[in-house]
Amino acid sequence: MLNSTTPSPTGHAVAMGRLIGDGALFLQLVDVAVHPDHQKKGLGKRIMGLLVEYVDEHAPHAYVSLVADPMGQELYPKFGFEDVRPGVGMFRCRRIQENREFKRKREETIKGLMRGGNE
């Protein structure tokens, strides 16, 4: 969804969000992110609003899923997303699963986020 808010080749992106999928029935909301220097300015909400508006207009019957990091778990319900409990998100990535140091750092970051830190 390139538009006037997309940075030029010389500009710097400070926030983003993407929809991936088949364009009609199954979509996944991924990579909603705001640079730390620009958080708490409403950019995440603006991105979510635009993405949900796009889905409602172009794929109103689509099943839209996402995986919410702890920091985003308060944002997404404001846009109609519901928890899938008792379902549990899962992943497969050999690069992480087979690299002990990478996995250790990832687990430390998750623990920090769960405690409310900004790691």
**Proportion in helices:** 25-40%
Q: Could you describe the largest sheet, including whether it forms a barrel?
A: 3 strands, mixed
| Mean of all residue-level pLDDT scores | 85
Say how many strands there are.
3
Q: Based on the coordinates given, report the CATH architecture of the largest domain.
A: 3-Layer(aba) Sandwich
Order of helices and strands: EEHEHH
CATH class of the largest domain: Alpha Beta
CA-based shape: globular
Strand order of the largest sheet: 1-2-3
Structural class: alpha+beta
Tally of DSSP helical segments = 3
Gyration radius, in Å: 16 Å
CATH homology group of the largest domain: Gcn5-related N-acetyltransferase (GNAT)
Strand content: 15-25%
Tell me the number of structural domains. 2
Pfam families: Acetyltransf_7 (PF13508)
InterPro entries: Acetyltransferase_Butenolide (IPR053144), Acyl_CoA_acyltransferase (IPR016181), GNAT_dom (IPR000182)
Protein name: N-acetyltransferase domain-containing protein
GO molecular function, one term: acyltransferase activity, transferring groups other than amino-acyl groups
